[in-house]
């Protein structure tokens, strides 16, 4: 059951409470993640084996799978599943390859030429969640743009299943991506291993991928403690649905539950201008949830979720922009005029026939997206996430005559004589 709040009656403290998610107020998650990072730094593979036994319930001697083992697992899956993964791979590839655009060089003054060239990040680490559900789709979402960018070394970490291996679907995605090793490590320990390196797991330059609160906290900590960078905070899934009287309550309930089933810490928010629709969504949720294998998880997430009743769609957009959802779904007949008003969202799904699950798997857009309000400042994963853009410049004699005197004055006003001299010696 979603608690309903009238938008007009929301106070500043209501906003603060409703906009917050996964805050770790007692710092319990941070404390345990710091301990895990320290342990992995100190004891490497031994710590990885111990944590894998503790959290994933399996004692591993070898933390990797060989190319032959991956190949055997990949060929064990059904043809329909292979084809579905191939279609997802192709669509993600098609959408992402358009992001590799060459920029033009600019002559900012005659003889002063500037340009930018992309270079792949050499060593990247991809975290593929596998705690409550194994997500082969995430491997495609990270591996495809990494391949398009041209990253030389792609390290994949994912928690092992109870049998000490990965599932065949993840193996098939590794095969599609031409990646022939996987490290059987999950959680904060996997993030620490990729940040610092162990005997088995190579250290990388940038860590990508979603995960639970432990994984997300570990990513932000290693970013500040080591030389590794991260894609973004991509934590527990969330969705915000904007709807009016034209929406179908069954579709709304299905979309709310699709994100709720990810985990008890997911959030699913409905912002609607029509109280009748909210009431019908509540009934649809009650019916649909009973048929879900993961109904217990979904029920916990729904219990922490809510509905906002607005008078206008402008109010709904205003709330959504403050919430900055990972996923925004707009279920209204007349959605087009609303698009330009959206300022904060990870990925947007418009119209009645656009479930968020299409973006999770196969439409082509990336499903690794900022959560917990970070859509205010971060974009989802793209080919750009795997590239650095290096700037270049070249000055001709004419260019030096044009720009030199300006630089001399600016260097002088900052009191940096050597900067000025570097120009002056060339102008003499
Ligand atoms: N934002 C996005 O783009 C996006 C995309 C896909 C999935 N997700 C989210 O990713 C998350 C996946 O979570 P998950 O748990 O299923 O898998 P996960 O792989 O992120 O986490 C599993 C690991 O968590 C660690 N762990 C579990 N309990 C722990 C504890 N008490 N202390 C320390 N470590 C512990 C274990 O090492 C375990 O291997 C979900 O919340 C899902 O919503 C987000
Ligand atoms: N909804 C998740 C992103 O928050 C992505 C995902 C993977 N599989 C299913 N869904
Ligand atoms: Zn999902």
Automatic annotation (TrEMBL):
Free-text cofactor note: Binds 1 zinc ion per subunit.
Residue sites binding Zn(2+) per the record: 259, 262, 360, 419
Q: Which Gene3D superfamilies would you find in this protein's record?
A: 1.20.5.1300, Nitrogenase molybdenum iron protein domain (3.40.50.1980)
InterPro entries (alphabetical):
Ald_DH/histidinol_DH (IPR016161), Histidinol_DH_CS (IPR001692), Histidinol_DH_monofunct (IPR022695), Hstdl_DH (IPR012131)
The domain of life is: Bacteria
What Gene Ontology molecular-function terms does this entry list?
histidinol dehydrogenase activity; NAD binding; zinc ion binding
Instruction: Tell me which residues bind substrate.
Output: 237, 259, 262, 327, 360, 414, 419
- CDD domains, from UniProt? Histidinol_dh
Where does this protein hold NAD(+)? 127, 189, 212
Its pathway, per UniProt, is: Amino-acid biosynthesis; L-histidine biosynthesis; L-histidine from 5-phospho-alpha-D-ribose 1-diphosphate: step 9/9
**Got a GO cellular component term for this one?**
cytosol
A Pfam family matched in the record: Histidinol_dh
Active site per database record:
326 (proton acceptor), 327 (proton acceptor)
Catalytic function, reaction form: L-histidinol + 2 NAD(+) + H2O = L-histidine + 2 NADH + 3 H(+)
Q: What is its EC number?
A: 1.1.1.23
Q: Which cofactor does it need?
A: Zn(2+)
Q: What does this protein do?
A: Catalyzes the sequential NAD-dependent oxidations of L-histidinol to L-histidinaldehyde and then to L-histidine.
User: What family does the entry list?
Assistant: Belongs to the histidinol dehydrogenase family.
Q: What is this protein called?
A: Histidinol dehydrogenase
